[in-house]
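Thread: IPE complex, take 2
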Amino acid sequence: MTEENKRIPSHVSIIMDGNGRWAAQRGRERVFGHAAGVESVRAVVEASVKAGVRYLSLYAFSEENWGRPEAEVTRLMSLMVQSMRNEIDSLDRNGVHFVVLGNRSRLSDEINRMIDECDAKTAHNDRLTLMIMLSYSGKWDILEAAKSLVKEALDDPEKGRAMADGLSAEDFASRLVTSGYPDPDLIIRTSGEKRLSNYFLWQGAYSEFYFTDVLWPDFREKEFFDAVEDYSRRDRRYGKVK
Ligand code: IPE
Ligand code: IPE
Ligand code: MG
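Output below.
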């Protein structure tokens, strides 16, 4: 990226896809691809810090992914635990605040405990916020927000009537798990698939999309910088005329 062409996205999000196909190409089990994908996570975190990206969110496991074979789900969760254990000190040293967002009621006590510890340990960092979207889906997020509003309205009918007339998009967004964080400027999806797979349905309303055929375990710093550079040439209009 040249110095004069530096429209850096504040929030980059990645749908990390293609681990299974990467492993199949090598005649290996799907989980071999997931393990290789951890290296790519490390690479894009470092690249984000280098590029000056402030928020990086990674779609690691969808609500739908619970429907995969039990052995694969177990392996993905143990990779998550291992990665937190191995990486948290280096993330901390690099100024990264580590958070996990999603339906945590489906995660084991062990994972939930580690998530809280890693978050607390790195909460003072402000160079990059790394959001791991785990057991997440866009519809789940929106439904939970809607349910919390309904409950509030039932508890306090006067507030409920006020909300029925005046609820704003900001009020609604403050109930999503991403509350307090900016919406993604750029959403990258690897492996050639061109769909959202129930990802940031609300937050992605005005995101730029970047699709690449590269499979996730092959997606490293160069591929990340290519995507950011492509973004820097886009013209975002938000429905207006320029
Ligand atoms: C992405 O790779 C990782 C997760 C969804 C957890 P996949 O496991 O979906 O790999 P493909 O799409 O089958 O190649
Ligand atoms: C999307 O990938 C979910 C994650 C990357 C975590 P999938 O591989 O699950 O998506 P589909 O099934 O191809 O839509
Ligand atoms: Mg996939």
